[in-house]
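Q: Hi! First time doing this. I have a protein sequence and I read that you can turn it into a structure. Is that right? Here it is:
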Amino acid sequence: MSFIVNGNELPESMDWRISTRRPASAEHKELTVEKDGSMRQVLLYDDGTVVETILGTNGTVMMTINREVAIDHARGLIIVLEPGARVAYENDGAVKIIPSA
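A: Yes, that's right. Below is the predicted 3D structure, encoded as structure tokens:
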């Protein structure tokens, strides 16, 4: 199975989770089955974040998030960035978020 987020293929060995700097709750969830048998889920959050996930019939998971993201390989996190935030990567693959001024 391959796992792709915003065009970046991530290692399959990690249990990836989405993380945000502040709690956000999904206002709307939509789950549909496409004609080819793949499943499509769209989550709309109260802060305007949209996460679209497609689970293909071949096991590929493709996720698109309408925000910039940072991938923390050390902790298995897909971090949704706030506008203007910067990212610093540590040697072990961990991510340090530098908030906008």
